[in-house]
Amino acid sequence: MYRYYRKAKVCYAYLADMPSGLSSRSVDMSFRTCRWFTRGWTLQELIAPKKIVFYAKDWEKIGTKASLQGIITDTTGVPSRVLLGWDLPSKMSIAARMSWAAGRMTTRIEDRAYSLMGMFAVYMSPIYGEGDHAFIRLQEEILKVSDDHTIFAWKTKRSGSKSGGILATSPDVFEASGEYEQLDNDSDNRRPG
Q1: What is the pLDDT of residues 19-49, one digit of tens each?
Q2: Rounded distance between C-alpha atoms, residue 73 and residue 69, angstroms
Q3: Are 6 and 75 part of one and the same domain?
Q4: Domain membership flag for residue 189
Q5: Could you tell me the CA-to-CA distances from 121 to 61, 62, 68, 94, 145 in Å, in that order?
């Protein structure tokens, strides 16, 4: 799906819980709290297309991704330079991209991982019913194509919680990792072997 959004000339986002006819200040507040920004699959819908036009519940035009980029960045953590297409998401660290997915929900737990495949340019067969293991598999696939060590830069909020290993169990644990940057791939950073 990510590729389809990337190739689109324009995408339209219908915000069913966004009232219309509001003052600009009220638009800002209502826009920030729309459910659209909390759903897992909408992250790729936000990042991949060059242009998005946002509409309120009665199809009143709210604005475009470009005109609303400041509010969108504040709401999602996705930098303006990525939203506006100046940088591809792949230029950002794995931890930063995972942080954009923190707090987003999907109907099925596995979809939290599956919805991120395009942003990390990896593919894995969906196995519905695998639960949180899908996110572990996603990270394993990412590690096959990347040497960005920020994939390990996550932290649980609960003290004494068991993560089960070096890989995260959810994008939520990357919430505070948005500022991490990957190191340049120089001779000191190369993968062994």
Answers
A1: 988 777 788 889 999 999 999 999 999 999 9
A2: 6
A3: yes
A4: no
A5: 32, 31, 27, 12, 9
